[in-house]
Design brief:
The complex is a heterodimer of chains A (314) and B (528). With 314 residues, chain A is mainly α. Chain A has 13 helices and no strands. Chain B has 528 residues and is an alpha+beta fold. In chain B, the strands form 5 sheets. Chain B has a 7-stranded mixed sheet with strand order 9-10-11-2-12-20-13. In chain B, helix 8 runs antiparallel to helix 10, helix 13 packs antiparallel against helix 14 and helix 14 runs antiparallel to helix 15. Classes of the chains: A mainly alpha (314), B alpha+beta (528). The interface between A and B is large, with 50 and 48 residues.
Chain lengths: 314, 528
C-alpha cells in the first residue's frame, strides 16, 4: 500500500475511534454525581430555576438524545457552549491548544536531545562506567514524581537565577520560549528514562548484527558507523515508544501545567471537570483523542520513512 | 479556598447615630483615598504600605487568584474570586469601606432614604462613563436593576425594588415594596454592577463575554481557568485613578507555584493566604484581616441521627475549637463566638456563650439522643486543604464520644449536588460575608434551606425582615443577637472557627486594602 493510502486509511479509522471515545466520556459524565444545571445557575437558584436551566441546557432529554444532539452539532463544527459561561467551546480551547502544543513539542525535542546521546553512549560500552551511570540516572529519573521534578527545577534554576520564569506562558515568541523551557525539561526528564533504556537495548542489538560487523570489516567505524548503520535501524522502536509516551504525557500535561501555571488544555480540563462543564469536558476529550491518534500516525509515518524495510500493509 | 459568596442585606451604619426613626438621612461619600479603612486592623506591613510615598501612576499588577471565576455574568457570581474580578469592571453604585462596617461612594456620590424606608434617592457622581466612552445615566441604572432582578440566582436580593423612578440623568429613586434601611448592602455587591442599557446593543450572551462597565478597568481577555487581562478604563470618572495601567490576574491552583512565583517577584499580590500556608511566605509580606471566615459543620436535620437536637448539641460540645485554630490555621483565627461570621456590620454575640468543648456533656447528650455507637458519614470537598484537616479533627472529636465518623471526600460539584439535595448526614463547608451587613450572612442561610440543613427557619427569616425594616442600630444589634440565639438554640449547623484572611503583597505594591472577607478595590493600588 502506498504511504498516502496508508495515511488516508488511518484517518478514516479515526472517525469510529473518536465516536467511541466521545461516547464513553459522555456516558461517564452522565453517571457522575452532581447537577451541572445547579452549578451553572447558582446555589441560591430555586428548584424551578434549576429545572428551567436543565431544560435550556438540554439535560432533560434522554441520554441517547443528548448524545445525538451533540454529535449533530459537532459534525457542523459546533462543539457546544460552556455551561458555566456560555462561551463557545471552540473559543475556550483555541488559546489553550498552542500552550499544550508548545509543551509537548519542545518536551519531545528535549527528550530526544537527552536520550539519544545518553543511550548511544551507554550502548557503545555495555557494562562500562558510562553505561552504569546512565542506567542509574534513568532509574532515578523514572522514580521521581513529575511535579516534584518541576518544583525542583523552579527552586534550583528559576528562583535563584531569575533567568527563566517560575510560571506562566509569557508574551510573544521569545517569552513563550523562555517560559516553556523548564516545563518542557520536566516533561523530557519524565520521558527520557524509558526512551534511553529502549534505545540502548536496540543499539546494543544492532551493534551485534551481521551488517554492522560487515561494515566494520570494510573500515567503517566511529561516528560514521553509528550514524549510517546503527541509528537508522535502532531508532524505529524508539520512535514508536516515543509516540506511546507522548500520548501518555498529553494527559500528564495536567500536572505539568498546574505546576508551572501554564494556561493550557490540562489546566483547562481540570477546571472544566471541577465545574461539571460537560460540553467543555467533551471538547477537551475530543482534542486529546485527535491529538493522540495524530501522534501515533506521525510516528508510524516517521518509522516508515526511517526504515524502508517497514512494509505498509493494507 | 472555595468559600462561596453569600447574599443578604447588610446592616447599615448609622452615621448620625439617631435611635429614632429618621426623617432623612443623607449619606455623603467619605471619599476614596489610598489610606481609607481601618489601619488598626492591619499588620505592620500594611501600615507601612499605607504610609508609603506618594502614589505613582503606571505599571502592571500581577495577581494570583486561588479558584476559577464564574464568568462576568452578574447573576452567575458565586465564588469570592469572581466578586473580585467583576467589580474591577462593573462598579456598583455603592462601595464597601475596607473596615467591613460601612459604605463608600461607588458610582453614586450620595444617597438618602425617606422616613418610611421605602424610597431611596441616589445621585450618580459627575462624569461617570462606561469603558466604551458612553455616559452612564439613570436609565442605565434602571436597566441594570431590571437585569439584577431577573437573575435566577441573585435576583432575590433585588426583588424588593419595585421600580426605578428617573428624576434626571444623574438622579433616580428606588421605590421599594417594603421598608428596607439596608438596601445599600446588596447595592454594594459586585452582583449589582451597573451595566449599559440594553447591553450596549449586544445580545446578553455577547455582553457577558465582553462586558462593559464604568469601573476603573476594562477586560481585554479572560477565561475561567486562564489569565484575566485588564487595562485601564480611560473614561474612569475619578480623576487620576486608577493608578495602574493594567492588571494580569492568573489562576494558580498549586500553592507551591503561587509561593514560588511570589518569591521570584513574578506576582505582586496573592489573593487568599490562610494560616496553614502563611509560614511559607516571607515575614511581613502578608496583610492579615480580622477574623471572619467561618468553617461550619452542617447537620442534615431531616434525617436521623441529627434530626434530634440533642444529637446536634452532642456534636457541638464534642468539638475542640481551639484545637482547630492551632492545628489547621496555625493560630491565625479564633474559636467562634456565634454561628455568624464576626467583624462585619452590626455584629452581636448570642446571649449565652457559644459552644465550647465539654466532652462529658457531649457524651451524655450522645447517649440520651442515641447518637453514641452510631456510624455517620462526613462529606467535604478535599480540594480545600483546610476542610480535609477540619474533617479529620471532627472525626477524632466525635470518636471520643462514641460516634464513628466515616470521612467521605467528594469533588466540589458532587459535594454540592449531595448537600443541596439533603443526601448527607454531616458536611463541612464555609461561608463569609460579601457586604458589610449581618443580614448578608443570614439571607444566605435563609435562601439555601437553612444552609442546606433543612431546618425550618421562618423565625430567622422574620428576624431578618425586622432587621431590614429598622434604621435603629440598637434594635438591629438586638435582632442580630436573636439570630445568634437561634443558631445556638436550634443548632442546624455549628461554626467551627473564625479565621483570618491573608493577602500576600510584594514590597513594591501599595494601596491594597482588603475587607475582612478579602475583597479589595483596584483603583487605589499602585506600584513603586
Amino acid at each position: 500500500m502506498g504511504r498516502f493510502a496508508f495515511v488516508g486509511k488511518r484517518l478514516l479509522a479515526l472517525v469510529p475511534l473518536l465516536l467511541g471515545i466521545v461516547f464513553v466520556v459522555f456516558l461517564l459524565l452522565k453517571i457522575t454525581p452532581g447537577n451541572p444545571a445547579r452549578e451553572a445557575v447558582g446555589l441560591r437558584a430555586s428548584p424551578q430555576a434549576v429545572a428551567q436551566a436543565a431544560r435550556t441546557m438540554g439535560l432533560d432529554e434522554s441520554v441517547p438524545g443528548q448524545f445525538l444532539h451533540y454529535l449533530d452539532d459537532a459534525i457542523h463544527g459546533n462543539l457546544g457552549y460552556s455551561f458555566k459561561t456560555n462561551s463557545p467551546v471552540i473559543d475556550v480551547l483555541k488559546p489553550q491548544i498552542p500552550v499544550t502544543a508548545w509543551l509537548i513539542v519542545v518536551g519531545v525535542m528535549l527528550s530526544l536531545l537527552i536520550s539519544v546521546p545518553l543511550a548511544v553512549g551507554a550502548a557503545l560500552r555495555p557494562d562500562g562506567l558510562v553505561d552504569h551511570v546512565v542506567r542509574g540516572l534513568s532509574v532515578f529519573a523514572l522514580s521521581m514524581p513529575i511535579f516534584w521534578v518541576g518544583i525542583m527545577l523552579i527552586t534550583v534554576i528559576a528562583l535563584p537565577t531569575g533567568a527563566l520564569p517560575v510560571g506562566g506562558f509569557g508574551h510573544g515568541f521569545l517569552g513563550h520560549l523562555r517560559a516553556i523551557v523548564l516545563p518542557a525539561l520536566t516533561t523530557a526528564i519524565a520521558l527520557s528514562p524509558v526512551l534511553v533504556r529502549s534505545l540502548r537495548a536496540t543499539v546494543i542489538e544492532v551493534l551485534e548484527s551481521e551488517y554492522v560487523s560487515a561494515a566494520r570489516s570494510l573500515g567503517v567505524s566511529g561516528p560514521r558507523l553509528v550514524r549510517r548503520f546503527v541509528m537508522r535501524n535502532a531508532l524505529s522502536p524508539m520512535i514508536t515508544l516515543l509516540a506511546v509516551q507522548t500520548g501518555y504525557f498529553l494527559f500528564a500535561a495536567v500536572i505539568v501545567e498546574t505546576t508551572f501555571n501554564l494556561p493550557g488544555l490540562g489546566q483547562g480540563l481540570v477546571s472544566a471537570v471541577d465545574n461539571e462543564d460537560f460540553p467543555l469536558v467533551q471538547g477537551y476529550t475530543l482534542v486529546f483523542a485527535v491529538a493522540i491518534v495524530v501522534i501515533y500516525l506521525v510516528a508510524d509515518v516517521v518509522v516508515a520513512l526511517l526504515d524502508p524495510r517497514v512494509v505498509v500493509e493494507g | 479556598m472555595t468559600y462561596k459568596e453569600h447574599d443578604g442585606r447588610s446592616t447599615r451604619r448609622q452615621f448620625l447615630g439617631s435611635a429614632g426613626a429618621l426623617t432623612a438621612v443623607t449619606l455623603t461619600g467619605l471619599g476614596v483615598g489610598a489610606c481609607g479603612g481601618s489601619a488598626s486592623t492591619h499588620s505592620a506591613s500594611a501600615a507601612a504600605q499605607s504610609s508609603a510615598t506618594r502614589p505613582k501612576r503606571g505599571g502592571t499588577l500581577h495577581e494570583a487568584r486561588y479558584e476559577a471565576i464564574d464568568g462576568f455574568k452578574l447573576d452567575s457570581i458565586t465564588a469570592n474570586t469572581t466578586y473580585q474580578a467583576v467589580q474591577a469592571v462593573m462598579e456598583p453604585l455603592v462601595k464597601v469601606n475596607p473596615n467591613g462596617h460601612a459604605y463608600l461612594p461607588g458610582l453614586a456620590e450620595s444617597w438618602s432614604v425617606d422616613p418610611t424606608g421605602k424610597i431611596w434617592t441616589f445621585r450618580l457622581a459627575p462624569n461617570v462613563r462606561f469603558s466604551d466612552g458612553s455616559p452612564c445615566t439613570s436609565k442605565d441604572v434602571e436597566f441594570s436593576v431590571d437585569t439584577w432582578k431577573a437573575g435566577p440566582n441573585n435576583g432575590g436580593y433585588y426583588t424588593i425594588i419595585k421600580d426605578v423612578e428617573i428624576v434626571d440623568s444623574r438622579t433616580f429613586k428606588l421605590h421599594l415594596s417594603a421598608p428596607d434601611y439596608n438596601i445599600t448592602s446588596p447595592l454594594s455587591m459586585a452582583i449589582a454592577g451597573v451595566i449599559p442599557a440594553h447591553f450596549a446593543g449586544m445580545t446578553a450572551d455577547q455582553f457577558w463575554l465582553t462586558p462593559i462597565g464604568a469601573g476603573p478597568f476594562k477586560v481585554d481577555s479572560w477565561s475561567i481557568s486562564g489569565p484575566i487581562n485588564y487595562t485601564r478604563n480611560p473614561y474612569y470618572f475619578r480623576p487620576g485613578l486608577p493608578y495602574l495601567d493594567a492588571i494580569v490576574n492568573t489562576l494558580t491552583t498549586n500553592d507551591n507555584q503561587t509561593r514560588l512565583a511570589f518569591l521570584s517577584g513574578e506576582l505582586d499580590v496573592v489573593d487568599g493566604v490562610f494560616g496553614n500556608l502563611a509560614a511559607e511566605y516571607p515575614a511581613g509580606s502578608i496583610l492579615w484581616e480580622p477574623v471572619h471566615f467561618t468553617d461550619v459543620l452542617l447537620f442534615n436535620t431531616k434525617a436521623p441521627p441529627f434530626d434530634k437536637l440533642a444529637a446536634r448539641q452532642a456534636a457541638a460540645y464534642a468539638i475542640d475549637y481551639p484545637g482547630i485554630i492551632r492545628a489547621v490555621y496555625k493560630g491565625r483565627g479564633a474559636p467562634p463566638q456565634g454561628w455568624l461570621p464576626p467583624n462585619v456590620g452590626v455584629w452581636a454575640p448570642p446571649s449565652k456563650p457559644y459552644f465550647s468543648q465539654n466532652v462529658s456533656l457531649a457524651r451524655s447528650l450522645a447517649q440520651s439522643s442515641g447518637l453514641a455507637g452510631q456510624t455517620v458519614t462526613l462529606r467535604y470537598p478535599p480540594e480545600e486543604e483546610e476542610f480535609v484537616e477540619d474533617a479529620a479533627l471532627v472525626q477524632a472529636n466525635l470518636k471520643a464520644i462514641g460516634v464513628n465518623v466515616v470521612l467521605t471526600p467528594e469533588a466540589t460539584p458532587t459535594f454540592l449536588g449531595n448537600v443541596t439535595t439533603g443526601k448527607y448526614q454531616l458536611a463541612i463547608w464555609g461561608y463569609n460575608a460579601s457586604a458589610p451587613d449581618m443580614g448578608n450572612n443570614i439571607q444566605f442561610i435563609t435562601t439555601t434551606n437553612c444552609f442546606f440543613t433543612g431546618y425550618p427557619d421562618k423565625q430567622l427569616a422574620d428576624l431578618l425582615n425586622a432587621f431590614y425594616e429598622t434604621p435603629d442600630l440598637t434594635k438591629q444589634r438586638a435582632l442580630v443577637q436573636q439570630m445568634q440565639n437561634f443558631g445556638s438554640e436550634h443548632v442546624p449547623f455549628v461554626a467551627l472557627d473564625n479565621t483570618e484572611y491573608g493577602t500576600a503583597i510584594a514590597a513594591n505594591t501599595h494601596g491594597v486594602q482588603p475587607t475582612p472577607w478579602g475583597y479589595y478595590y483596584y483603583d487605589t493600588i499602585w506600584k513603586s
